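Human: You know discrete backbone vocabularies at least as well as I do. Show me how you would write down a chain together with its backbone fold. No explanation is needed for now; the record alone will do.

Assistant:
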Amino acid sequence: MKGGGFRIYAICYLIFLYAPIIILPLFAFNDATVIAFPLSGFTTKWFAEMTTQPALGQAVKNSLIIAVSASVLATTLGVFAARASTRYDFPFKGGIMGLIMLPLVLPEIIVAVSLLVVLLGLGVNLSILTVILGHVLICTPFTIAILSSAFQSLDRSLEEAAYDLGETAVSTFRLIILPLVMPGIISSLLISFTISLDEFIIAFFLAGTEVTLPVYIFSQFRFPQAVPVIMALGTILVGMSILLLTIAEYFRRRGLARSGAKDTGGFL
């Protein structure tokens, strides 16, 4: 009885979680501007109509620039922070790492408003650059969490052997450590890219006149005739997010298999 009840709960939970995602492509291919059942017919015109909207193209361009920049910067910072936290002991290590990871538990609206007040107080004009800074702030804790696992699984004897053979710290990091943690770095890049591409609140506050893709989608829901196009766009974004997360999980597990570390849970 208990097992049956849990099974029913799990099925209901999965339906509640994934039903909106399943409904999204149904209306993206529906030949009607009204989002309602029954469906009118099959069409791909909403996907073709996306190519005729210059504002959408500019929003996609802005989001890609922000996502690529934020993922590279956040992963770079994550490499340094994860390496320092797993390899060295230094004063106030716990407190410093706690502050770095704090954006994971802070509401994004608080982070966005705080950044807005600070940037305006410093006289910084809102632009793509300010959004990149905000996204680096929220993506860096995720990269540290991923990369810390990769660095912790390293065999220190390999590093010590490189030193014994005359390698410097820089060359050891480049030739030995970096290749071993590369699956974690790739996973970190993909996760950060996905988070940045889908992020709305910080972009809404810090973008200024430069519209990102999530902000564009939000603005278009005011116009009923634009909803089917947004459904088509959302279908593409969901598919791309699933693909990126799948690739990231593949590289994460590949890194664990290479190092022989225990898998304590992943993204999928």
